[in-house]
Amino acid sequence: MPERRTSLASGFSAGLATGLTALALLLSAFGGQTAQAGVFDDEEARRQIKDLSIKSNERLDTLSKAQFDLINQIQALREENAKLRGQVETLNYELESTKKRQQDFYIDLDGRLRKFEPQSAPATENSPPANAANPGADPAKKTASDPAAEAHEYEAALNLFKANKIKEAAGAFESFVKAHPDSSLTPNAQYWLGNAYYALRDCKQAINAHKAVVNKWPQHPKAPEAMVNMATCQQELGDTKGERSTLQAVIAKYPDSPAAAAAKKRLKK
Q1: Rounded to an integer, what is the distance from CA 13 to the centroid of its chain?
Q2: From CA 29, how far away is CA 222, in angstroms rounded?
Q3: CATH at 183
Q4: Do 238 and 159 belong to one domain?
Q5: Calculated CA dihedral for residues 238, 206, 210, 112, nearest 10 degrees
Q6: Does 23 map to a domain?
Q7: What is the predicted pLDDT for the residue at 129?
Q8: Are residues 152 and 253 in the same domain?
Q9: Is residue 168 assigned to a domain?
Q10: pLDDT, tens digit, for every residue of 160-173?
Q11: Which range is least confidently modeled, 110-119, 153-162, 240-249?
């Protein structure tokens, strides 16, 4: 009996040891699979992070290049704008210089032509009063002209034109023409009124003003120049036929004038 008990105890111990061993092996195998799964998950995460980092860097490179190109374009536009601004300023300066030279030329021409124009003789102490021949005449209706005052008024209007105060000059010349219709300076004032309208880019009014010079004072030294100015206005209005007709009329009416020589040159172009 004691031997049988010993045998049973030994068998039970051996079985228990075998079971424990099997359980240990099972746990070991399960732990190994878990470890392998953990290692696999970490590598996949690293790979995904790496791929995301590469894509992000590529996007940043693309954005940086686009931003750099945009900056270059903005800089190019700024340089082009500065260049255009400089050209506009240069053109404005040249335009103003041309206008100034043109005005100086007109002033000089006016002075030269006035030397050949008849001047009104100023009143002297020995000159009889304007109403001496007709004592009963109304003095208010027979007021004698004052050449000195007229000349001063005319020069004031001309100085406004020379100072590039064109609108004021036009008003002054128009007032002079209305106030002194019989003055020897009225044809000049009418001529300059046409030039003032031209400077104001009102070619229709300029043509009408110059036409008045030709119609009222056809023998005046400024009549040929007025016709040439009319042709210039017609050219700017696109009236090529009218321009040629006016230039031909200048040559026909005033063949020996400088205006006729200028008209011939323009017709050859």
Answers
A1: 111
A2: 123
A3: 1.25.40.10
A4: yes
A5: -110
A6: no
A7: 42
A8: yes
A9: yes
A10: 998 999 999 999 99
A11: 110-119
pLDDT range class, residue 60, cuts 50, 70, 90 = confident
CB–CB of 201/209 below 8 Å?
A: no
75 and 156 share one domain: no
**Structural domain of residue 152, as residue ranges?**
147-268
Picking from 228, 223, 219, 229, the residue whose alpha carbon sits closest to that of residue 196 is 229
**Separation CA 195–CA 216 (nearest Å):** 17
pLDDT band at 43 (very low <50, low <70, confident <90, very high): confident
What 3-state class would DSSP assign to 255?
coil
Asked if residue 16 has pLDDT above 60, the reply is no
Whether residue 188 is found in the same domain as residue 264: yes
Q: Is residue 9 part of a domain?
A: no
Number of domains comprising the chain: 2
pLDDT tens figures, 87-141: 665 565 455 556 555 555 556 656 655 555 554 444 333 334 444 344 444 444 4
pLDDT category at 50 given cuts 50, 70, 90 is: confident
C-alpha span between 92 and 210 (Å, rounded): 28
Structure tokens at 189: 């004032």
